[in-house]
Amino acid sequence: MSVDIVSLAEKVATETIRRYASEVDTDGRWPAESIDALKQSKLLGLVVPTEFGGMGAGPSVFAKVTRIIAQECASTGMIFLMHICGTRVIIDAPAFPRRNEILQRIASGNHLTTLAFSEKGSRSHFWAPVSQAVPQGDKQSVSAQKSWVTSAGHADSYVVSTQAVNAKEGTTSNLFYVEKTQEGVSVTSLWNGLGLRGNASAPMKLENVFLGVDELLSPEGGGFGSMMSSVLPWFQLGNASVSLGICAAAIESTRTHLLNSKLEHLGQNLASLPNLRGRLARMKILYDTHLAFIEQVAHKMETNAPDVMLAVLESKAAVSEMALELTDLAMRTCGGAAFSKHLTVERNFRDARAAWVMAPTTDVLQDFIGKALLDMPLF
Ligand SMILES: Cc1cc2nc3c(=O)[nH]c(=O)nc-3n(C[C@H](O)[C@H](O)[C@H](O)COP(=O)(O)OP(=O)(O)OC[C@H]3O[C@@H](n4cnc5c(N)ncnc54)[C@H](O)[C@@H]3O)c2cc1C
User: Among the four residues 163, 199, 259, 369, which has the most C-beta atoms within 10 Å?
Assistant: First the structure.
């Protein structure tokens, strides 16, 4: 089954996603055709349990599929990743009354979701929203300034974090299911990013949005726990997989360029230069060693290994850093041609920079990993 899923992802990626990637990046537009292809192939239901019509895939297949998508279009890869993270929260919310219906819609390709965690006030410290729910009859009123929401205005629903009523600190939070059409939900500006230009990671505002227990996805006051258990491992693994996909594209583009670019006066091509071959080799070694690590992390998630959380923290920190080095090597190896859009290298270089600043940022992950190694509390 997993072989079939991976072949399906390869087909969607090479037949559709590849075709629109350059235009999506240049125009900074939503990859409508690619998202439609993911919907039609039912890949949006990749991790939805089979009882709801989904593919029931685990971390290893998820990592592979995300990498395959991101290799063709990192914007589409990131949209897919945030959708899977939102889906994981819904899967892990047995008390949410609409859980089964939404999961069936996701599995049948009729629902895209995403995370709306980061806030203007707490920036990359997504675990500590500054917005706070206020009681309103038997409901709660939520107002929040969400600083970056991938798929803003395009997703059918948002998994929104906010401090619980009467909470004394940001980590006492709730996660709510919020429909796109709900009154008080708006996108406040357009996304025009350096990289991942197609993924509509725009700011959003929630203004007196009425929510209640029927929309609650986490245990009351347990939003932080849901973020750590339902989201963090999948986000880290998936984010590392997006970075690996970007790196795979940069390697292939560099390899093709070295083979096809002539030094006519010498009767040779660029592949004849040993320093360029050496750089390509360094790129490949970086890629293969990090791919092996990510496969190991996925396996640890699948087997619930005792050191899984440390491995999960390391995964995004390691690969996001490596992707900066690898795409820099690709730029230098391809020379002036790397600045041109006929290679994918300059897009790969720009796209690779987002993972480092996506929360938890690499700085924060390194601090968490150090604390974990020294038996210190992370928060
Ligand atoms: C393309 C893209 C898509 C995104 N999509 C989403 C999304 O779908 N949903 C969502 O919720 N968010 C999303 N985000 C937001 C993201 O997760 C981060 O919250 C955001 O990138 C942080 O940017 P900032 O300017 O607020 O960082 P800041 O918090 O201002 O950080 C600035 C610098 O300070 C460092 N720093 C911060 N805190 C510490 C610390 N404690 N110790 C050491 N160094 C520290 C950081 O590493 C960074 O170098 C997205 C971001 C991007 C770029």
Answer: 199
Mutate to test the pocket of ligand 1, among 122, 124, 320 (most ligand atoms within 8 A of CB): 124
Q: Indicate which atom in ligand 1 lies nearest the CA of residue 115.
A: 9
For all residues of the chain together, what is the average pLDDT?
Answer: 97
Q: How far apart (Å, rounded) are the C-alpha atoms in residues 160 and 157? A: 9
Strands 113-116 and 157-163: parallel
Q: Does the structure show a pLDDT above 60 at 1?
A: no
115 CB less than 6 Å from ligand 1? yes
pLDDT digit string (tens) for 131-179? 999 999 999 999 999 999 999 999 999 999 999 999 999 999 999 999 9
User: Residue with the nearest Cα to atom 25 of ligand 1?
Assistant: 123
In this structure, which amino acid lies at residue 340?
S
Residue 179, helix vs strand vs coil: strand
| Statement: the pTM of the whole predicted model exceeds 0.90 | yes
Q: Is 60 exceeded by the pLDDT of residue 290? A: yes
Mean pLDDT, residues 15-43: 98
What is the structure's pLDDT at 333?
A: 98
Q: 114-221, what's its fold?
A: Butyryl-CoA Dehydrogenase, subunit A; domain 2 (2.40.110)
Which is it for strands 157-163 and 139-149: parallel, antiparallel or unpaired? unpaired
Domain 2-112 has CATH 1.10.540.10: yes
Instruction: Tell whether ligand 1 has an atom less than 6 A from the beta carbon of residue 47.
Output: no
> Which of 361, 363, 366, 371 most suits a substitution to test ligand 1, by most atoms within 8 Å of the C-beta?
361
- Within 57-172, strands assigned E span 113-116, 134-136, 139-149, 157-163
Q: Whose CA is nearest to atom 16 of ligand 1?
A: 358
Same fold, 2-112 and 114-221: no
**What's the fold here for domain 224-373?**
Butyryl-CoA Dehydrogenase, subunit A; domain 3 (1.20.140)
Q: Where are the domains of the chain?
A: 2-112, 114-221, 224-373
Other C-beta atoms within 10 Å of 188: how many? Answer: 12
Closest residue by CA, ligand 1 atom 26: 123
